[in-house]
Design a protein that fits this description.
With 478 residues, the protein is of the alpha+beta class. It is built from 18 helices and 22 strands. An eight-stranded mixed β-sheet has the order 17-18-16-15-19-20-21-22. Strands 3-2-1-6-14-13 form a six-stranded mixed β-sheet. It has a three-stranded antiparallel β-sheet with strand order 4-5-9, with no helix packed on it.
Length: 478
């Protein structure tokens, strides 16, 4: 490993904010610094939920210029985002509007027609992806059914991180980790599923050659940023996050097994394996098989996560009530438990807005109880997350035949010590919480490997030296 300090820049785009994170490597550890943050969210326009890609693009470039001006020896940049959402390009390579958000209701309107083309079982067999309205396959089918004139203008479809890499480099690409979330690839993510494309009548020209991660796209073409090399460091934010983990679950004979949880707006719970889980029992449990940055597989559950709490905060902010997360969690720790937990994946929590009243109505309908104040409501939400994680781990043990004794809890949720404690209690296993900036750090490590600054075999030692973690056990948090 080199001893000359270099900086890799991670553009980490979430569904409510975007950040440019600088990771400076000094030969031993990576120091991660937030350079630029901006808020964004899906907006209703003409009856549809859409993303303002122009705003994201402008902030992305502004943030990179700040990083160039302030960071030591910047050498590379990589973009990661949430899954399934796409930008459509015309024949001139220009983005077409609108850019739909995955929670837009048009996929619900076309779901029955989708299932007439592909049953849940047929879709699973063809892709290894859990059937869901948010899947890219469902979104593109809805496009062809409801907006055939717009669909006729589409020449290429790029997933969000690949689109922003295209903006930076001028080169179009289809990164396996992000496209593997689409429901358009064969199990294992090595090729497009021709059976799905044919069943849905999606034009072949929309999709190009799949690209492996941890490699170089090309030089940045944005004026003032030409010193940066654009890298595929893991297009999917969860693929980046698990790139910070030790190599777990890859061997069938590994006796020390662990599960991981990337905890943000979505709670993504899974294992690391060489091959996908494809039995129909996995389908019935809701497993989906996506690709890691290093080419392996991450069988996982996409669980509704902190989105519910974030929407409650937004409601309280609008109402002029307490909305600070630290204060809310402190109230929750002191509150009396209602003694019930709900399923965060219930359909009533899919849509945004008015989440406090939705949760209260659900509690009343299902259990005949209501939270008496903010603290009790937040406690019930966090206890429900922890209970769902425990159910997911039990299902993974059933599917893999393994017994798990450790949970790596990654991402922003790792800073919520009460959630970590509740998760340890609900699962009965050790919870290792952190790194909080797992997606950014994973992207940075992938970039350093792509640029041949570090070696893959040194990754976890560098991560361990760089990241703060805490240990939580049932009844004990430290």
């Amino acid at each position: 490993m080199t001893m000359t300090s270099v900086t890799a820049l991670a553009v980490d785009l979430g569904s409510s904010s975007g950040r440019i994170m600088a990771g400076t490597f000094d030969g031993t550890k990576v120091t991660v610094t937030e350079v630029h943050r901006f808020a964004h969210e899906a907006q209703m326009k003409d009856g549809n939920l859409i993303w303002c890609v122009k705003t994201i693009r402008e902030n992305l470039i502004e943030g990179l210029r700040k990083a160039i001006a302030t960071c030591e020896n910047p050498i590379s940049v990589s973009v990661d985002t949430w899954g399934v959402d796409m930008v459509m390009l015309d024949s001139a390579g220009q983005a077409l509007d609108p850019v739909y958000a995955y929670r837009d209701e048009r996929t619900a309107r076309t779901q029955e027609a989708f299932r007439e083309r592909l049953s849940d079982e047929a879709f699973w067999d063809a892709t290894g992806i859990s059937p869901a309205q948010i899947n890219s396959a469902n979104q593109l089918f809805a496009l062809t059914q409801e907006e055939p004139e717009l669909a006729a203008k589409v020449d290429k479809v790029l997933w969000l991180p690949d689109y922003f890499s295209y903006v930076l480099s001028g080169k179009q690409g289809w990164s396996r980790s992000i496209v593997s979330s689409s429901g358009l690839l064969e199990p294992g993510g090595r090729a497009w599923s021709q059976s799905v494309r044919t069943a849905l009548d999606l034009p072949e020209k929309w999709f190009g050659e799949l690209n492996d991660e941890i490699n170089i796209v090309g030089p940045c073409i944005i004026p003032g940023l030409e010193m940066l090399t654009v890298v595929r460091g893991g297009g999917h934010d969860t693929a980046c996050a698990v790139h910070t983990l030790p190599k777990i679950n890859d061997g069938e004979g590994d006796s020390s097994r662990a599960v991981w949880l990337s905890c943000g707006s979505w709670s993504v719970l899974g294992v690391l394996r060489n091959a996908p889980l494809l039995a129909h029992e996995a389908l019935h449990h809701g497993v989906t098989n996506e690709v890691r940055a290093d080419g392996g597989i991450r069988p996982l559950f996409n669980l509704t996560g902190l989105w519910i709490l974030q929407e409650c905060q937004r409601f309280w902010k609008f109402e002029g009530e307490e909305c600070d997360i630290v204060t809310l969690v402190a109230k929750a720790r002191e509150a009396e438990s209602l003694g019930v937990t709900f399923d965060p994946d219930d359909d009533c929590f899919i849509q945004p807005f008015d989440m406090v009243n939705r949760v209260q109505a659900h509690l009343l309908e299902k259990f005949g109880v209501e939270a008496k104040d903010q603290g009790q409501l937040v406690r019930t939400i966090l206890e429900s997350f922890a209970a769902r994680y425990a159910q997911g781990i039990e299902a993974l043990e059933e599917l893999t035949g393994a017994t798990y004794d450790t949970l790596y809890l990654l991402g922003g949720g790792s800073k919520n010590k009460f959630l970590c404690d509740l998760t340890a209690q609900a699962t009965g296993i050790k919870v290792l919480a952190g790194p909080a900036e797992a997606s950014a750090l994973g992207s940075i490590m992938a970039q350093l490997e792509s640029m041949q600054v570090t070696r893959p075999e040194d990754r976890y030692a560098i991560v361990s030296a760089s990241a703060h973690t805490t240990t939580h056990r049932a009844g004990v948090g430290e």
